[in-house]
Write a structure and sequence with these properties.
12 helices, about 35% helix, 23 strands, alpha/beta, about 400 residues, elongated, Rossmann fold, six-stranded mixed sheet, Metallo-beta-lactamase, Chain A, single chain, seven-stranded mixed sheet, 2 domains
Length: about 400
């Protein structure tokens, strides 16, 4: 059944406690997620977004308990991705002539995915929809947050920003509102969401936040499409986004490594020892790439001033796990971070130069040429790694 949000706005979404992977297998969701859909009942009845396709029939049946479907005057599709629009085909079977308000790019994505020519009404930034009782929806295009078709809708009177993916998090909860959930869990999922999904679009994040703030309207709630609704001091997540978008880092060094016979692991631990000895105040995280969740690793990279990436040389290259995480890191286009490489080798030792080149290509300030160890590091090799760590700490 629906849950009251504010005034005549009801949450009619789905809590997915079982979800563990998202975007195919690209994003880990250890704490599940929610697919938030909202029903506005003013003089006009407006549905804002739907839910993911596997829950389409359930969604429509539950929505039917809230309202006679024929009384829905329009649907707002803030974003065409299937976790938001997946139930549209099932819903539109019942109300095929109902207008769907979306951006021009959303028409392309919705047609491309569902091959349906619904009654689309294209809107752009500043367009409004009068929903009666003195209230309107004001639309704001938000391209690349995180698809070209994304937009937000602001509801006057109740002062609710339906923000779609922006300010959301993959976090299953029945408690609905931000002030009711575990705050550490919530913020952990928020920063993970930003780091893994929105980092490449940080300049656009700042631009769009300023654009929304320039409207000069009060925002009492931010109703996202995943996770909690921000009703207690919603400005807090806006402030976090502005900080995260500004070449964010904490006083942290993250050491990423893969290892075959523990030589590169020994190097990682020795480098960590050197960093800590030089700067006991810095947070150090060690992540074995092949044994760690990649999205959790990316979140640690996002938090860091410096990352060190290590791999043994294998086949004149690096391990597939190291290559995979470097591909992810390059695509996210982190700003203002430093990096260096390390690794063991038995013969030719191409791994460290390959990592060094990749880090530079990914936009990191490369601190040095990295450090190699021939075979497993002996006592002198361990001390070299400790010294390498001290030098890194001095250059943070």
């Amino acid at each position: 059944m629906g849950r009251m949000v504010k005034g005549n706005v009801t949450w009619v979404g789905k809590v997915d406690w079982e979800l563990r992977k998202f975007h195919g297998n690209e994003y880990s969701t250890h704490k599940g997620s929610t697919y938030n859909s909202y029903l506005i009942r003013e003089e006009k009845n407006v549905l804002v977004d739907t839910v993911w396709k596997p829950f389409a029939k359930e969604f429509v049946e539950n929505l039917r308990k809230e309202i006679d479907l024929s009384r829905i005057d329009c649907v707002i599709a803030n974003h065409g991705e299937v976790d938001h629009s997946g139930a549209l085909p099932e819903l539109m079977k019942h109300i095929p002539e109902t207008p769907v308000y979306c951006t021009a790019n959303a028409v392309k994505s919705l047609k491309g995915q569902y091959h349906q020519d619904w009654h689309f009404v294209v809107v752009k930034t500043g367009d409004t929809l009068d929903i009666g009782n003195g209230k309107s929806l004001v639309f704001v295009e938000m391209p690349m947050l995180h698809w070209p078709d994304s937009m937000a809708a602001y509801m006057t009177g109740d002062n609710i920003l339906f923000s779609n993916d922006a300010f959301g998090q993959h976090y299953a909860t029945e408690l609905l509102f931000n002030d009711l959930v575990d705050q550490a869990e919530l913020m952990g999922e928020c920063i993970k969401y930003y780091a893994n999904i929105l980092t490449p679009f940080s300049p656009l994040v700042v631009k769009k936040i300023r654009e929304v703030l320039a409207l000069g309207v009060p925002i009492d709630m931010i109703a996202t499409s995943h996770g909690v609704i921000w009703r207690d001091n919603p400005a807090q997540i806006v402030e976090k986004y502005l900080a995260w978008a500004d070449s964010y880092s904490e006083n942290q060094v993250t050491i990423l490594y893969d290892t075959m016979w523990d030589g590169t692991r020994t190097m990682a631990e020795s480098i960590s020892e050197g960093i800590h000895g030089q700067d006991p105040g810095v947070t150090i995280k060690l992540c074995n790439i092949s044994k760690s969740d990649k999205n959790d690793v990316i979140t640690e990279v996002f938090r860091s001033k410096v990352i060190l990436v290590g791999s043994p040389t294998i086949g004149k290259g690096i391990t597939s796990g190291t290559a995979g995480i470097l591909e992810e890191i390059e695509g996210l286009r982190f700003k203002g971070k430093k990096a260096a490489a390390f690794g063991c080798h038995g013969w030719s030792g191409e791994g460290v130069p390959k990592i060094t080149e990749w880090l530079g290509k990914a936009g990191f300030e490369v601190l040095n040429d990295g450090i190699k160890s021939l075979w497993n590091p002996d006592e002198a090799g361990v001390e070299n790694c400790v010294s390498f760590g001290r030098d890194v700490a001095r250059r943070i």
